[in-house]
Design brief:
By secondary structure, the protein is mainly alpha-helical. Helices cover about 50% and strands about 5% of the residues. Helix 3 runs antiparallel to helix 4.
């Protein structure tokens, strides 16, 4: 991973941590909110390509590992794409996103996972 990408990930994670400490909330609800943060803090990224999916997976993994939030599937299209049984197992979450990413349009895929404190 290039240094600029790593720095941008750390910047976004810092914002989320400050939000949690200041407001008791990350102030994000789902992947779409992470995309908005990327648009503000990682302007060079292609937000339509495969690169977007990878960076969202990295951010989601870091959010889980740093215990900033839990992942849930309340907003997901559970009736079409059944979510993983274990919302703490990152490998299941990663597989779920990878399996369903191309089955959905850009707006719908923003709701594949959501975050809760």
């Amino acid at each position: 991973m290039e240094i600029e990408t790593k720095n941008n990930i750390n910047k976004i994670l810092g914002i989320l941590l400050r939000n949690k400490q200041s407001y008791g909330s990350l102030r994000i609800e789902h992947l779409g909110d992470l995309i908005n943060l990327l648009e503000k803090h990682d302007r060079k990224r292609d937000l339509d390509g495969e690169d977007l999916r990878k960076i969202l997976l990295i951010l989601s993994k870091n959010i889980l590992e740093k215990k900033l939030a839990r992942i849930n599937f309340e907003l997901a299209y559970n009736y079409i794409y059944p979510p993983p049984s274990d919302s703490t197992n990152y490998h299941q979450i990663e597989k779920y996103i990878e399996d369903n990413w191309n089955k959905m349009n850009a707006v719908d895929r923003q709701c594949l996972i959501s975050f809760e404190i």
